[in-house]
Amino acid sequence: MKQFLEVGRLINTHGVKGEMKMELWCDSIEYLKQFKRLYLDENGQRALNVASVRQQKNHALISFDEITSLESAENYKNKILYGNRGDAKIEEGANYIQDLIGCYVVNADTEEEYGRVVDVLNYGASDILEIESGKKRRLVPMIPDIVKEINTEYQVIGIIPMKGLFDED
Q1: What residues form DSSP beta bridges with 117?
Q2: What pLDDT digit, counting tens, does each position of 2-37 carry?
Q3: CB–CB of 153/96 below 8 Å?
Q4: What share of the chain is helix, strand, coil (3-state, %, to 5)?
Q5: Residue among 47, 48, 5 nearest 26 (CA)
Q6: For the chain, what percent of residues have pLDDT higher than 90?
Q7: pTM (2 d.p.)
């Protein structure tokens, strides 16, 4: 499992004191507010100390101790920020998308393998697992009627597929 996870991207400057507008890649501003430090690399080598975080529509406005001017902030536009998974808590039973990618999807009853998760999508109603097997890709809604077990430690997701989902044409 990756220790440092993508939480968003700095998309623009905001004001003249170094505050920046951030596209959120995490569930909420409340999740983001747990971090006192964010990183400019996936290895946690280049840290920025978070001074403040606030909501602005679908984005966050964020400032860092190290960025105090508009000129300085310009250098960080389009940078991806990473959070250390140990610095934040998630709800019981919740999973990081990064931990789902690569999991095998199997039938919860028969253990028949359907493929591996290559992406997790969301179009509003629920998350959707994109599963690849050979050249085929299928989409499986992550709803309780279908997804019965998620075990990221063993990289297995057990499902009871809807009729027709994996039936061959």
Answers
A1: 131
A2: 899 999 999 999 999 999 999 998 888 999 999 999
A3: no
A4: 10, 45, 45
A5: 5
A6: 78
A7: 0.78
Environment class of residue 144 by beta-carbon count within 10 Å: exposed (0-12), middle (13-18) or buried (19+)? Answer: exposed
87 CB-side CA count, 13 A: 19
Give alpha helix (H) positions in 5-110: 29-32, 70-74, 97-100
Q: What is the pLDDT of residues 98-118, one digit of tens each?
A: 899 999 999 999 999 999 999
Q: What is the CA radius of gyration of the chain?
A: 19
Task: Supply 41's token pair.
Answer: 């690399």
**Cα gap 35→148, rounded to integer Å:** 31
Say if residues 82 and 40 touch (Cβ distance below 8 Å). Answer: yes
Tell me which residue of 70, 101, 100, 96 sits closest to 85, measured CA to CA. Answer: 96
